Amino acid sequence: MNTHSLTITDNRTGKSYDISIQYGTYPNYGASINAIDLRQIKTTKEDFGLLTYDPGYTNTASCKSDVTFLDGEEGILRYRGYPIEQLAEKSTYLETAYLLLHGELPNVEQLQNWRQHICEHTFIHENIKKLIDNFQYDAHPMGILVGSVGAMSTFYPEAKNIQDHACRYQQICRLIGKMPTLAAFAYRHSRGLPYAYPDEKLSYIGNFMSMLWKGSESKYQPDPVLEKAIDVLFILHADHEQNCSTSSMRMVASSYSDPLSAISAAIAALYGPRHGGANEAVLQMLKEIGSVDNVPNFIKSVKSGEAGRLMGFGHRVYKSYDPRAKICKQLAREVFAVTGANPLIDIALELERIALQDDYFISRQLYPNVDFYSGLIYQAMGFPVGMFPVLFAIARTAGWVAQWQEFLLDPDNKIARPRQIYCGHEQRDYVPLDKRE
Ligand code: SDX
């Protein structure tokens, strides 16, 4: 008997089935059965067999991946085995993007080549710039990003050549190189400002800051504290295993769409307030609370269901403090030393203090997630709330492209086509219009 198996007895028939158990890196985190093995469990020959029902995929592994490891109970996040705390302290976003994509930290030459390849792709086609020009002045920048990245697929039709390594690599460099430019141009458009073109003499983050905030000076000088803070925030947001937007990207990639269209779908998923739109929702929530004195009543209204959810709290995987939130909390202090403290921070700290002592949140394992503090930092830097999910999208592009390539190289890869539990009408005949009630 294979001890790494389940023996399932179907009480409807008394029949037993042995279903083998498979493992990933950790025996106690990711042991699984192949769902298709359940289909043999039938009551009659005509029976379709057993499915699993799992709305939101709360307990379904959609793929095997080597990129990111999360342990929600222990609050662990590692990219290719490296703890997020070490990468945040010692790495850069561009180096981390290389690590996510290639699986190893780059040596000096590899990092120089990588940076050069990204720099070659920071400009966007002038017609995409004109596309951005034609959005309404108050168009949400995430809507502009979804549209402009999707439009990129028409400018680079060769991106469909997804089985060619060199072509994949070129699209990956295009996406990582152009995301900051698209984001900055969307921001400048919303402010009615002329575009500031890429400056390859600056770092990846410094160039992004220059395209956002360069004024009439001949050369923009990024503030080193803010440049480092954005770099760390991008590292924290670079990947997060099978979150909603990454899963959406994999779903679209599974039909062998080009990567530009797949990433556009990921951006659309990230736009939602339950995902990347949460840090924008956190700021709106803190503004509505208005003062530290109002926090206890607000907590009461969350618990009663009247005020909706405590945005920036809770997570499908983390059932303890999101390790990224811890780093953000420290980063806030460093940024506020330069920008001046965000007055909403006091409300956020009081919310966290009370919530972490309150059984409603403790019993539901609700702790601050990455979005609880990141928005406060971005606002203090001068970003409008609409740009928060855009910043998240720039950073997550590294994870999306790494997992896009991993999917294509996965021998198990199939077009995604979930099944359903049909609960509708049985067969019935058409009723002519004059016979209907
Ligand atoms: C991100 O997946 C990722 O990795 C995402 C992300 C990434 O890097 O890609 O980490 C980024 O999206 C972070 C999450 C940002 N979203 C928010 O902060 C929005 C607020 N959070 C919730 O909407 C919620 O916590 C989710 C969506 C994040 C997780 O929802 P789940 O796991 O589906 O949990 P659930 O909705 O089933 O809730 C379980 C219980 C419910 O209570 P009961 O019905 O059992 O009484 O917890 C309650 C919920 O009402 N609950 C909350 C709550 N989150 C869950 N109650 C109050 N405030 C909250 N924030």
Features:
437 residues, mainly alpha, Citrate Synthase, domain 1, Cytochrome p450-Terp, domain 2, three-stranded antiparallel beta sheet, binds s-citryldethia Coenzyme A
Describe the structure.
The protein has 437 residues and is mainly alpha-helical. The protein folds into three domains: 5-51, no CATH class; 68-272, Citrate Synthase, domain 1 (Orthogonal Bundle); 278-381, Cytochrome P450-Terp, domain 2 (Cytochrome p450-Terp, domain 2, Orthogonal Bundle). It is 49% helix and 6% strand. It contains 17 helices and six strands. It has helices at residues 84-90, 93-102, 108-119, 126-133, 141-155, 165-190, 204-213, 224-236, 244-253, 259-270, 278-289, 295-303, 323-339, 344-355, 359-363, 370-381, 388-409; strands at residues 5-10, 15-22, 32-33, 68-71, 76-79, 82-83. A three-stranded antiparallel beta sheet has the order 1-2-3, with no helix packed on it. Strands 4-5-6 form a three-stranded antiparallel beta sheet. A hairpin with a 4-residue loop joins strand 4 (68-71) and strand 5. The mean pLDDT is 95. The structure holds s-citryldethia Coenzyme A. S-citryldethia Coenzyme A binds at residues 56, 240, 243-244, 274-275, 278, 302, 309-317, 364, 366, 369-371.
Largest sheet: 3 strands, antiparallel
Percentage of helical residues? Answer: 40-55%
Strand content: 5-15%
Helix vs. strand class: mainly alpha
